Batch of 3 targets.
Target 1
Amino acid sequence: MTPASNVDILAIAAHRDDVEQTCGGTLLAMQARGWTTGILDLTRGESGTRGTADEREAEANEAARILKVSVREALDLPDGNVQNTLENRLKIAAVLRRLRPRVVILPYWEGRHPDHYTTATLGYEACFVSGLAKVDTGGCEDPHRPFKILYASLYSAVRPIFAVDITPYMEDRFQSLMAYKSQYATQPGGTGLFVPAEEIRERTFAMARYCGLLAGVRYAEPFVQKEIGLVEDLMMLPVASI
Ligand SMILES: [Zn+2]
């Protein structure tokens, strides 16, 4: 997809299909509130057991359509070897200066896959660098530092700081994941490594339901932020305590 203009909320992930698994419902919920959303995938999926990078690009574009994002781009970092280098920070910063998001969503900073937890630090540092006036990222855009950085924590055991109600968007969020037919359709290559297709629906809904139970709604996605929350009116606090 070609970028048309700035985005309000940008989700940055290591791999195509990460956003669909961790914060796709939130992107749909925010788009419905009138915000423009976007996705930046750092790699193109060339090392995956199943599917080629070209197939995954077509699938990513279909998923982007389902998630109603305005922009989806992919950088060329090596799949399976995402490193927090100055070169990579500058590549991400160039995108941040062009798209100028107020909110950036990153993966949580601990996890099984090194690309995921590296993306958390790499993305954070890219947000910092992007705001430095004297750093040249190769484009002509002004420096830009996102206001808020959130970490999508769905695949981490960490207790979320808050959750986003995605109940009306749960099915579409699941369908965006299913757009990756090369990854999730039942097929012989990679059995044993991949969860059978029929189990993915159950797992996806169960995790969203669990997070929803914690937040007093049906389906939700969990997030962590490093800052504390600021409250103006105690009477407006959501989620019942008892
Ligand atoms: Zn991933």
Note: The helical segments are 18-22, 24-32, 53-67, 86-99, 114-130, 170-178, 181-184, 197-215.
Target 2
Amino acid sequence: MAIEQTQTVWAATYDLLRALQLTTIFGNPGSTEQPFLKNFPADFQYILGLQEAAVVAMADGFAQATRRPALVNLHTSAGTGNGMGNIMTAFLNKTPLIITAGQQTREMILCEPMLTNRDETMLPRPYVKWAYQPTRAQDVPGAVMRAYALALQPPAGPVYVSIPLDDWDKAALGPAAVRSVSTRFAPDGDRLREFAKRISASKRPALVFGAEIERSGGWDAGVALAEKLRAPVFHAPNTERPSFPEAHPLFQGMLPIAMGPLSDRLKGFDLAVVVGAPVFRYYPYIAGPVLPPGCELLQITNDPSDAAGALVGDSLLGDAKLTLEALLELVDDGSSRTPPKPLNLQRKQPESANSPLTASEVYAALSELRPENAIIVQESPSNMRDLATWWPTVKPASYYTFASGGLGWDAPAAVGVALAQKQSGTGRPVVAVIGDGSLQYSVQCLASAAQHKLKIIYIVPCNGEYAILKEFAVLENTPNVPALDLPTLDIVSTAKGFGCAATEARTRQEIQAAFSKALNADGPTVIAVPISRKLRPLI
Ligand SMILES: Cc1ncc(C[n+]2csc(CCOP(=O)(O)OP(=O)(O)O)c2C)c(N)n1
Ligand SMILES: [Mg+2]
């Protein structure tokens, strides 16, 4: 068949990407990628990031917001290295990213010319599900198909395919096989019934909801189960996606992020049912048992590694939505249980405003203008609790943050989330709340936001310091750590330099005026808000 014989690896791969609807490519080009990018097809869109950390996180945000895998193209070893922190984060976020990277020509790899990606499959490990360089040029499309299939299946995650630059013009074997794979699996029936029995028998169960619920589309099923059981619901510690409405009367806040306080918080419960989260994602070490005496634990997850890694309890493998829906049918009605007292959040403001404002005052001012359809992206370590107090998440797909704590993810992820809104025409604005320190790690994303005129409002609480690390220093008793102050940052100039509208806002009125203007702007705005430097306890 003449057509098949003359089709190149390049053409076969683009046809495959088209068939898989991977037509938005996030990247930063180099000479090892140009043979792939040449004659860039008109039905594809290339989203340029000026540094690969930004590229990877933009793709991650886009994949999460579209609930589809995303395609990334990195520049050989150096680009992979720059992207590595956010590849790690994508792995923990369980985001399906198909990462391709250029590689030197096969003709020369042996003598390691410039741009060689040495031990190319080792570099991204252990934070990819698969790393591969095809042994023959003809295997490139098949490797991309395999990468896609693996990235998508639970637990989803990034995969990495290194492609030598001379592969693209070689003759393909023919059109690539286009395959589909499943993205969820149902739990084992017997074990599910056993779990349902134990939940029904519990006098005082606590539900602990993690990001897999939101990702699986299980938000409503989670609410229905909690209401049927009349059980309090906690966010899993350090969860990256709220999976339960934070204004619901059964909502009890996020579990503490350290062992001792977490087990204290569960005192009095005889069963913790953790759905869609690790057991548990701690941050500082504060000694204590994993669970209080008398409390058992059940875990439901689609991730065998999280199931194996749980410190206590029994696990059931299954998709969060499918499992919650099945449990809803099987558990006994819990209307005899006493519902918990609703959270009593402190939403008081001082009689006269502080100067500079506290973060709490800033979020209070913003919340008055909160568009009902806004999406929050958050990387503001020392004041994220204030944000949650004033701007509770009440709907799915409305809040994103990272699962890793590796700074430099959220500012670019906001670009991907906003691009997804633009492509699908939702009109939803993205409000990215990013600390003045955090913004610096992949600040180049601001250029991508400006270039694509994305509806993002960056709120940058400026304390001129790494406040959370100062709070950590108190907790850990590590005085006199150097380098926790950031005295020279000029966020407004930085933002303008990348092409964004930018302004400083110091008072309630200035904040509200700037925010209103930004909501109506045709492109991103960065609002730098000086905030008080008063430290608070970390836990
Ligand atoms: C890539 C990376 N480098 C360093 C750190 C350590 N770190 C954790 S929080 C933090 C400070 C964040 O500062 P900022 O964004 O200004 O927030 P604030 O604590 O002031 O609210 C740092 C440096 C990290 N988490 N990730
Ligand atoms: Mg700061």
Note: The pocket of magnesium ion (ligand 2) is lined by residues 435-437, 463, 465-467 (CB under 6 Å).
Target 3
Amino acid sequence: MSVQTKEIYGSRSASSSGTSNDDKWSESLQSVFELVLESQGPERTARLLDRLAEKLRAVAPGTGRGFNTPYVNTIPPEQQAPFPGNREIERRIKSYIRWNAMAMVVKANSTTNVGGHISTYASAATLYEVAFNHFLRGRTEDFPGDLVYFQGHAAPGMYARAFLEGRLDEGQLQNFRQELADGGGLSSYPHPYLMPEFWQFPTVSMGLGPILSLYQARFNRYLQARGLVKWKDEPKLWAFIGDGECDEPETLGAITLGARENLDNLIWVINCNLQRLDGPVRGNGKIIQELETVFRGAGWNVIKVIWGTDWDDLLARDKSGLLRKRMEEAVDGDYQKYSVEHGSYTRKHFFGKYPELLELVNHLTDDQIRKLLRGGHDARKMYAAYKMAVEHKGQPTVILAKTVKGYGLGEAGEGRNITHQQKKLNEKELREFRERFNIPISDDVIAETPFFRPSPDSPETKYLLERRKALGGFLPERKVTAPPLDVPKLDYFAEFFKGSTTEASTTMAFVRLARVLLRHKAVGRQIVPIIPDEARTFGLDALFKEIGIYSAKGQLYEPVDSKSLLYYHEAKDGQILEEGITEAGSIASFIAAGTSHATHGVPMIPFYIYYSMFGPQRVGDLFWLAGDIRAKGFLLAATAGRTTLNGEGLQHQDGHSLLHASTIPTLLAYDPAFAYELAAIVAEGLRRMFAEGEEILYYLSLYNENYAMPPMPAGVEDGILKGLYKFKSGPDGKQNKAHIFGSGSIINSALKAQEILAERFDVSADVWSATSYKLLRTDALRCKRWNMLHPAAPQRKSFVETSLAKERGVFVAVSDYMRLVPDQIAPWVPGGLMTLGTDGFGRSDTRARLRRFFEIDAESTVIATLFALAGKGLFAHQLVEKAIRDLGVNPEKVQPQIV
Ligand SMILES: Cc1ncc(C[n+]2csc(CCOP(=O)(O)OP(=O)(O)O)c2C)c(N)n1
Ligand SMILES: [Mg+2]
């Protein structure tokens, strides 16, 4: 620093503290900056500034502003696209929707306690209405429509709009959250399972909508890259998200995918009303600034819409920068307070901190100060942001729109901490709401909160319908248009029915099956193999080379293993979705592929193969959602079984995911033992889902234990599909009879026990393969219920009852899963069912030791069978005790299940 500059600006230490010195520095830098900007243009200037910032960091590492921009709108007024709509009419339409959305909830809760939300939509109405009137495109002949993820708790707003559009009637609105009422009602939230022609995407479990939208945006690119769809225009994906919802790991955890894959078809609109359910999202900070950092860091285009038009003038006159400074200083807790207080409070506490700011707002009354709009309530600001978002290239866009939660509710909830839960308004509050939004409802009926729909020839209805027509049609709407597929018949899988003496696991059988299917001319191209970084574990790496790994960028590098036959092959038209280590992302891809029949009219067949332990246990809510969204496809729970996956220990060994999976109503859970069972189930799944169009899911456990795969016995197909069939009868002429149900690779314990029982204990045991306890139980429950409700009619018998009716002796079940799995059918087994299973935490050890530890090996199965016989008085208890000793089982050993 020269002596002269030191004189002007003061010494280093003095200048670092004083504001006026800062101003001087700022002015002088500003003039240089303007010169550079004018002569060099914005891009070059940005580069030069970056270089300077780099120099600064060389002296003081870690300095700099990072990823934040000032707390003002990203789009300055002079760059704001003009609003093309009729603001007055749009405002009226929005007001009517606001009213009806509120009325639905208030009405429902005047006679019931079914709940509902008013304040979420109240804060988001402008975000939705500008989008509906100007951006969201419906489905047409050659365009699948934009895909919109509506924030779950804003559902009343979507119903209220559909009412104005004439798509829903008053009776349906009346029955909001009363789906079982006469004439039907409306589901609480977006559930395609419950309203299959209306909702496309379930969103209400926070975080799931956002992650689905990301992987769906990528899946849209995948379909295009593989030539499976040809669209006139590329659909956009819009996800409306809560600011509180951003605390969910599923919301933010995968956003880098958006930038990595240049998903400029994706737009997130985060409604930053600064509140969640209990209170402020970030009372002591600023959620918009925090999210900006995260998204900019992740490579997204960020558009902040913080201030409404009223603030433009104030900011333009803020020459000193003090207003910006004040905006920056105030935390969200302050802003929330300003939204509930009178204008005088904001004048005193916000502007009043600096005398210059008080002067800036001298011309405004307190009421005008109170009404200074936030950006998310200003249609002009939102329009400009959406326009910039849809035109942005190369990156996904996130719009951070600042709003007030419960906007318009006044003292009934606006900006208050209780607002999320508010579902009742008294008459005074209803009148205020009506006045504020100018709803033509008279005093004498207002207490009944009647719905209001302008007549079909009113300017509002005409305008609204014309806008939707111009944009291609109504939204949301779900339509299944996919054609049936000519799926392979059973004979296509002949090789699996023959059996093989070469030892193989069911996982290996599946890999073989996948390769055979990939070659099939009608379904091969539709198959989507999805893997979260475990292809090598499952032996699927052979597919890398054959069908390629999808990558939007192709392969920009020479793979390290390029010389090998099975090299890691990424390609623009690759078929595999290799997701990396993300089970949430992988199942999101599964859901995108498994709903393609409805979303795009293109049937796709996802095969998602993963570590069974990291299935529904890890991301159960997404599995559940797969049922709600009516996804189809195959879920392959590999490395199944608490003891079959040996060595790995407690956190890997799965002995319960079949139970998690069984909870999903549309899911068929199978635990097959042999290659032919697998083939029969997959063939049937293909038929039901892709030829018949059933919206169901198949869940199959796959094991990694090798053994000879037997040929399929005659006439067992039906039993395989229904859940139980006799695989191998015991020898004739024995004193006692028993039946052992085995599943998965543990059927081998049953088979070995069969030999021991015959040779050493004079027991003939039939071995059955139990492929699905869930299906057996569901069928049995169905019969039981029918019988109960038709007590005088001839009583029905379930499949399991019919199958076992003629069998005598005792019944034992053994599997690599918890006892609860076979216990499901115990009530229908003659004389009861003795179950063995892997209850308790896993251990690292060999299969043999693990199976003894969990008491599911052959010896333990023999003991259980003898004990069951003893229980019926068919075998002496002393002899069971002797057998325990002879078989080398320690009766005092540790019990795996401890509580
Ligand atoms: C996974 C999950 N956890 C909790 C809830 C319950 N819940 C519903 S809405 C809500 C608050 C939402 O706040 P925010 O995302 O900010 O949305 P806003 O209503 O403010 O727009 C909570 C906690 C839920 N729906 N999903
Ligand atoms: Mg919120």
Note: DSSP finds 38 helices and 20 strands in the chain.
